[in-house]
Amino acid sequence: MSAATGNRTPRVYARRTAVLAAAAALAAGAALITAPAAVASPPTPVDAATARTYLGQLTVRAEGSLTGYSRDKFPHWITQSGTCNTREVVLKRDGVNVKTDSSCAATSGSWYSEYDGATWTAASDVDIDHLVPLAEAWRSGANNWTTPQRQGFANDLTRPQLIAVTDNVNQAKGDKDPAKWLPSVTSYRCTYARMWVDVKHYHNLTVDSAEKSALQGILNGC
Prior knowledge:
With 222 residues, the protein is of the alpha+beta class. It contains 8 helices and 7 strands, in the order H-H-E-E-H-E-E-E-E-H-H-E-H-H-H. The protein has helices spanning 22-27, 48-57, 86-94, 134-139, 147-154, 167-173, 189-202, 209-220; strands at residues 79-81, 84-85, 95-100, 106-113, 118-120, 126-130, 162-166. The protein has a 3-stranded antiparallel sheet, covered by helices on one side. Strand 4 and strand 5 (118-120) form a beta hairpin. Helix 2 crosses helix 7 (189-202) and helix 2 (48-57) runs antiparallel to helix 8. The chain is globular. Residues 1-38 have low confidence and may be disordered.
């Protein structure tokens, strides 16, 4: 299901160009239409040249199976500090003017989704995407990790592995790699590829041949 067609009444989905509709949308209690002046983001990935080098160092191997896979094997949204878990930390990091309650839940703010160019004012409209999906990681070598290793991967705030995006877009991406899914905002694809390679290289995950070809094509155009 795409973010444009999801059943969100009375919420409103729109891209940054719909500036004139902002007042009406806000009056209806809808998501903010225009992108914030400042956009927070995950840690900066390696540059394109480094990403190309890293990609060449990754082991190319056919994807493994999902036998034995479960999201529970990647404990995520662990407590980071005080009452704040990983999701809440990312919501505050990637949002603008985010306010939270005593339990660290976001009560207001705005979140610009780099994948599709939408901005939301309700945290419930935002997912925290594992850039390299958990199932993809499992098929790429994480099946051999310990639970603490998988937990570190699923809550990695140091690498560009977690990003706040439109929930329906994240769900449409699922566990697809860049050969099968890319952000609809084409100007973000170079950054996305850099992030993907940065994460896979750090965590010593493999790539399949189609995935590598897709990444090479993007990075060569950066």
